[in-house]
Write a structure and sequence with these properties.
By secondary structure, this protein is an alpha+beta fold. Helix content is 52%, strand content 15%. Helix 1 runs antiparallel to helix 6 and helix 11 packs antiparallel against helix 12. It is rod-shaped, with a radius of gyration of 50 Å. The relative contact order is 0.07.
Length: 471
């Protein structure tokens, strides 16, 4: 059996227990530590209190016991007097010697030490200490009396230690019961408290299995509710992305159907004309069909390229560089001039450098110019200005209606006036996508001459910046 290490490939700790078991274990450990601290504190308190009470009792008895009886050698105590009480006494003089009375007179003599001798000499007024002898622990108190004698009383600690032992056993039993109860309570709390998590997990697993992106029910306003709300936001984003993908496929299929049908028809006509026994085409008709086929292939190529560009719905992850935006604009203008030789261009470009992708920026600017060229009248003028990162393209066409402006950057959107013209409705969508990938914006408005004005702003600077690669 292979034991997995506690650390994963990322160097972080990975738990192999369920969350409920971890909550139960932590609750049990916390309760056990609390019970242990309380039991230890109670045990120490009781022990100190018992010892303090015993010390007060011994000192009081040593101060108040009549010395006439204890220090009289002729007085005889009953045989079981000291044995029943497990106490011995000693009456000492200033030399440290004295009369010892107890069940075994030789035992107290062995227990007397320097502290009791110091008290008998008057160097100290009292002393209390614990000594061991013959397997028994004794608490010994010595008091120097006013008459010059010293009374020493020793009492066995057997009864006190027996009481503390019983107290320790009781605390251990009750502490163990408390820990077990805390573990059961922790298990119940973990089971009931994590029930919403289990329901949420089951719902998410069902979504992963069925791909049903309906929102999850949200109850309350606690952390679980916040987690469910976050899942709902993620589901909404996934649903919107899936809808956009389906719409893109549907629109692409619709846009591809017309040029493909026309292309197939023209190819069929050319095939029939070139076959044996085929019909004769009028002069120039074959060349016209070939030009039509070539134009349709170019339209398909442009449409497929636009679809591929729009399908790149992700942040800019390529190695980017400092792009000289005026140079890109000039290249785009040169391309559009070849396509629309009947138009004039008024160009005013100020220095501006953008950190981004050169090819994508050129494609977006070309699409802006192509849109202006498509709507400009023959012999019209397109005004292109670049200042502080704002590229403005003005045409002299009919302009864009107010109701069409919110949709001109949508995929495959074409106004009623443009449906009879060439194009797929993807050019301005690519412009917006490129602008957003470069943290810029694009807007539509009215040109001073009455046409349309398209404005694209890109962040940058007037001087080149070092090349960089996004992390």
């Amino acid at each position: 059996m292979t034991v997995l290490p506690p650390f994963g490939p990322d160097g972080r700790w990975h738990y192999r227990r369920s969350l409920a078991s971890r909550v139960t274990i932590l609750t049990t450990l916390a309760a056990g530590a609390t019970v242990a601290l309380l039991a230890f504190g109670a045990y120490i308190t009781v022990r100190m209190q018992l010892q303090a009470t015993l010390d007060d009792s011994l000192l009081h008895r040593a101060e108040t016991t009549p010395t006439e009886t204890l220090c009289n050698q002729n007085f005889t105590f009953p045989a079981d007097y000291f044995g029943a009480t497990n106490v011995w006494v000693a009456c000492m003089d200033s030399s440290g010697s004295g009369l010892f009375r107890g069940k075994k007179v030789d035992e107290p003599q062995k227990l007397i030490g320097d502290q009791e001798v110091a008290v008998s000499r008057g160097e100290r007024s009292t002393s209390v200490r614990t000594v061991s002898g013959n397997g028994t622990r004794w608490r010994i108190a010595a008091v120097h009396r006013d008459d010059g004698s010293t009374m020493v009383i020793g009492q066995s600690l057997d009864s006190q230690e027996a009481l503390l032992a019983k107290l320790g056993i009781v605390m251990l039993l009750f502490g163990g019961a408390g820990v077990i109860g805390a573990g059961l309570a922790g298990w119940a709390v973990a089971r009931n408290g994590l029930r919403p998590v289990r329901r949420l997990t089951t719902s998410v697993e069902d979504i992963a299995r069925t791909e049903d992106l309906r929102p999850l029910p949200v109850e309350g306003d606690d952390e679980i509710a916040r987690l469910a709300a976050a899942f709902n936001q993620m589901l909404a984003a996934l649903a919107a992305s899936r809808d956009r993908q389906r719409q893109l496929v549907a629109d692409a299929g619709h846009e591809l159907r017309t040029p493909l049908t026309s292309l197939r028809t023209n190819i069929d006509l050319l095939t029939q004309a070139d076959g044996e026994g085929g019909m004769e085409l009028p002069p120039g008709a074959k060349a016209e069909l070939l030009d039509d086929v070539r134009a349709q292939i170019e339209e398909l190529t442009t449409l497929i390229g636009d679809l591929v560009e729009l399908a790149r719905d992700e942040p800019l992850t390529h190695v980017v560089e400092a792009v000289d935006l005026p140079e890109v604009v000039e290249r785009a203008i040169a391309r559009v001039r070849r396509r629309a030789p009947g138009l004039s261009f008024a160009v005013e470009l100020a220095p501006w450098y953008v950190v981004g992708e050169d090819a994508g920026l050129e494609r977006a600017i070309t699409n802006l110019l192509d849109n202006a060229a498509k709507w400009s009248r023959e012999g019209g003028r397109i005004t292109v200005t670049l200042a502080d990162g704002t590229l403005t393209v003005d045409d002299e066409g009919p302009g864009i209606a107010e109701e069409d402006r919110p949709h001109v950057f949508d995929r495959f959107y074409r106004s009623p006036e443009s449906r009879g013209m060439s194009g797929s409705g993807l050019g301005l969508s690519i412009v917006r996508q490129v602008a957003e990938r470069h943290s810029g914006t694009v807007e539509v408005g009215d040109a001073p001459g009455g046409g349309a004005r398209l404005t694209m702003w890109l962040p940058g600077s007037v001087s080149p910046v070092p090349s960089w690669t996004p992390a």
